[in-house]
Design a protein that fits this description.
With about 130 residues, the chain is of the alpha+beta class. The protein has a single domain, classed as Trna Endonuclease, Chain: A, domain 1, CATH 3.40.1350. Helices cover about 15% and strands about 30% of the residues. It is built from 1 helix and 7 strands. The strands form 2 sheets. It has a 5-stranded mixed β-sheet. Strands 4-7 form a two-stranded antiparallel sheet. It starts with a helix and ends in a 25-residue tail after the last strand. The model has no long low-confidence stretch (mean pLDDT about 85).
């Protein structure tokens, strides 16, 4: 798969994971949208930027993932609420709230790591609380 195909795969996989948990995803009709998916949670809509990483850990069993793609201003809180980063190595998603200034993150599935709590956690801070 090329990088575009991997990105699309991650978006559809994220949507399917949401549906399986009773979370309603929506996809914008235009590819030029800053966000990839909108999800409904707690009566609110959240704009999600989905990323795909095929990186293999080099140290401390963690991977570094760029979030800004050289367009830092596009991923402010005004445009993106959450990042959903799919890791091919860890075989799951890291769902992380956007601070508004994130350029990259180091991810590790260890629950004691900084973002370990976010690994496959589709209820980060109650945002995606399922109705079922």
């Amino acid at each position: 798969m090329d990088s575009n195909e991997k990105g699309m795969y991650a978006e559809y996989l994220f949507s399917c994971e949401c549906i399986s948990r009773g979370i309603h995803p929506s996809k914008p009709m235009l590819d030029s949208s800053v966000y990839d998916i909108i999800v409904e949670g707690g009566g609110k809509l959240y704009k999600v930027q989905v990323k795909y990483s095929s990186k293999i850990p080099t140290d401390r069993n963690s991977i570094q993932v760029a979030l800004c793609n050289g367009i830092k201003s596009k991923y402010t809180n005004e445009f993106i609420d959450l990042f959903a980063v799919y890791s091919e190595h860890f075989k799951g998603f890291f769902i992380i709230k956007n601070t508004g200034s994130m350029q990259g993150i180091r991810l590790n599935s260890d629950k004691n790591s900084k973002y370990g709590y976010n690994f496959n956690n589709f209820d980060v801070d109650g945002i995606f609380r399922s109705k079922s």
